[in-house]
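Lab meeting, action items carried over

1. Structure of the four-component assembly. Owner: GW. Status: complete.
Input record:
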Amino acid sequence: MLTPTAVRSASFPRNAVQPHRKAVHTGHPAADIIELMGTVMPFTRNAEIYGENEPADYLYKVISGAVRTYKVLVDGRRQIGAFHLPGDVFGFETGDEHTFSAEAITDCRVAVVKRNAVMAVAARDTEVARQMWEITACELRRVQEHVLLLVKSAQERVATFLLEMAKRAANGAAVELAMSRQDIADYLGLTIETVSRTLSHLEKTAAIEVPTSRRIVLRNQSALNRLNS
Amino acid sequence: MLTPTAVRSASFPRNAVQPHRKAVHTGHPAADIIELMGTVMPFTRNAEIYGENEPADYLYKVISGAVRTYKVLVDGRRQIGAFHLPGDVFGFETGDEHTFSAEAITDCRVAVVKRNAVMAVAARDTEVARQMWEITACELRRVQEHVLLLVKSAQERVATFLLEMAKRAANGAAVELAMSRQDIADYLGLTIETVSRTLSHLEKTAAIEVPTSRRIVLRNQSALNRLNS
DNA sequence: CGTGCAGTTGAGCAAATTCAACGCTTGTGG
DNA sequence: CCACAAGCGTTGAATTTGCTCAACTGCACG
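Predicted assembly:
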């Protein structure tokens, strides 16, 4: 199931990344540092970007496509920790090793930068250090939200998920889902059947429209917000 | 139900806290800064330490007793984000406002320090800044663990909770619980009845012993670990 | 001695999972 | 070009899990 057609990233950048010192003073949002200092790498659908327990030597930023970070529990179930869309930074670990695995959901391009390089800059430039902290703090808030999501009912979880995706996509009320039902289920702590049934139910109650399985139109956002609890 | 006998912390420290500059260079672990720079305040059982959406002007560290941070959902349910025991830092927010509320579970003493004061030090001292970041990162890992907890079965959640408490108490296989069944339930995303039943079941299967409702002896830690999934 | 609170236990119910079947699309090989 | 297998998604039926409602116990406190 996991990475069925996965292409192991054999071309992982061992070549050092040159920090462009001047870039970090331009006042760009925090995540831009990685893009400015890094190398853009392509990953094919389902390719592993890094694995749990591998050394966390790089930081990543999605340029295009989508990425999932996940953990496989001892009983074989998979819990997806986050979906990363263009602009999102990931692979930002505290210790020396990744605590999650990361895979490309779709073909995608990812900016990669040596953690050392960024840290070296951060050691000298307090503004960069502050931005690194900021990224960690944002991630913390996001995970706290995820905790609140997981104690809701199935309907509420799906509704919250759709609203979240709609907000991030920001192209109005239509969402083009990069991920499969299984991905959604593993993110929401539900089964694919429950996700599917819930979407069908939401469609029947005119809250959404599902022209294709990957495309969802939010018809009645306030109804979803009400479920959002 | 919430804070039934709560004593609003009328004596919240508006008096400025004097930073002792020299303390921060002693190489103590990160959390010590707050203790060194701060003022120790007592809180009575169920007293509110701060509320959601209040300005996050202070950082806190538990000296003695126990603290819960929580959020009340729109449907009235309460989700506890964390239990803080002696040595734990809390109230560490990213924005200007607290995203959770904090209450004393038991009578407790808490070191309090002005956020500004710490931040001012951190701006000059990169080591302090690094420690602040470290605390955020630790919190991030803890919340990520909480996500993994919430997708498990009731048995697994309770078992995991007991093992976590045993590890933190670190007085062997016996746990003295500071919190009520309701607190535990709200932390685990279960009902009190389910928590109670699960504990009874674990006792029947000889995994634990419950001499008093607040005291739990882990008889068969490996059995719990197996449930821990 | 009664009152109130915390915890336990039971019975019935609702929600979500499991197991199974089926439809649709896509890609592959004859 | 068609046949067919594989993957993904949907739907139905049976089952399980945890929740709701309710009663009851033990204990502390006035």
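2. GW to write a short summary for the group page. Key points so far: Confidence is low (pLDDT under 50) at residues 1-28 of chain B. The longest helix of chain B spans residues 126-150.
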